[in-house]
Every structure is written in structure tokens, then in C-alpha cells.
Amino acid sequence: PFVRSVPIGGTPGLQPSDPKSFDDVTYKAQITWKPIDQLQMYAQYAEGFRAGGVTARITPNIPPSFEPDTATSTELGIKTQWMNRRLLANFYIYEIVWDNLQLGAAFTGQFNGMVNCTEQKDPAKSRGWEAEVTFAATDRVTIGANYTAKVGANATIGVDGGLGLTLGGAFTESVAKSATISIGEETEESI
């Protein structure tokens, strides 16, 4: 009548975890150039920081803590507007690079924890581009479309033979429509 539990890899119970403190300074810079009223071009550089932390060590094989990870992002883009701002068309290319990437890892059949991707020779990367178009067909109806193509490098870590980093699908797209309708004399509702 009872289900056998999966072995958890060590003596159950709380294991000591060392408290840690993390901080960092990150920077962001952007250069924008607008050669004509309808066209804006930009280049952007940004840094990111995600603090590390301690892990509840239910079993001894779960690391007691994980370190911070950092990211740098570069983006080049063009934003355009036409037909008295009724038609907007934008295009961006980007690259994001993560160092010491934090990942969730399964240490046993029952328990997970956070680890860093420190065994990776090269940092994890995601590159891609995005195009979007928005058209205001009337004062109350707007139609938009978006397409994103991304290329992600895999990162592996040495937990249970290596875990892969999945950065999402290679392509995503969306189409949207919004409309504003009148409800009564003074109230409007967007759908």
C-alpha cells in the first residue's frame, strides 16, 4: 500500500549553508542618431547582474550556494515612422552573453538546486534579430506584426553528466489587432 521513495543521495535533514553577500555595479550606454524625422538609429550596450544565493541543502550533494552571474547585451536598431506616424516599422539585432550562468539542476529524483555554469569554456550566448510593424488603420483600429529569429549557443555543466541550456525556439512570431469601441457617450473600451 505504500510507494517506495527514490533514494535521495545522502542523509536527509538540513545541512549547513553559509550566508553570502553579493553586489556589483552595472552600466548602460546608448547612442541615438536621427538623420531625418522619420528615421532613428541607435546602438546600445548594457550590463546585467544577478546575485548568487544559498541553497537549502536537503541532501549533502546539493551545493551550499551558487555565485552571481553577469550578462552583457549589445543591440543595434532602426526605428522608422511613416504616414503621419500611422505606420511604424522597426528592426533590431542583438547579442546577449552570460558569464557564470545560473541554472537550476536536478540533483536527485526529488530535489533541485541552483548551480553556476563554471565548466563552460565559452560563455552562453544568444544572438538574433527582430522586425516589427504596426499600422493604425483608423483612429480606433491598430494592426501589428512581429517576427524574431534567434540563435543560441548551448552551455553544459557537469551535473548528472551535463545539462543543456535551452534559449527558446529559433523563431517566434506574433500578429496583434487592437480596437477601441465606444460604450455609452463618454466611455471607451480597448479590446
Describe this structure in words.
- With 191 residues, the chain is mainly beta.
- It has no helices and 14 strands.
- The strands form four sheets. It has an eight-stranded antiparallel beta sheet, with no helix packed on it. It has a two-stranded antiparallel ribbon with strand order 3-4.
- A hairpin with a 5-residue loop joins strand 7 and strand 8.
- It starts with 27 loop residues before the first strand and ends with a strand.
- The relative contact order is 0.15.
- The N terminus is likely disordered.
Sheet/helix structural class: mainly beta
Strand content: over 45%
Q: Biggest sheet: strands, sense, closure?
A: 8 strands, antiparallel
**Record field, number of beta strands:** 14
Task: Provide the helix percentage.
Answer: under 10%
Order of helices and strands: EEEEEEEEEEEEEE
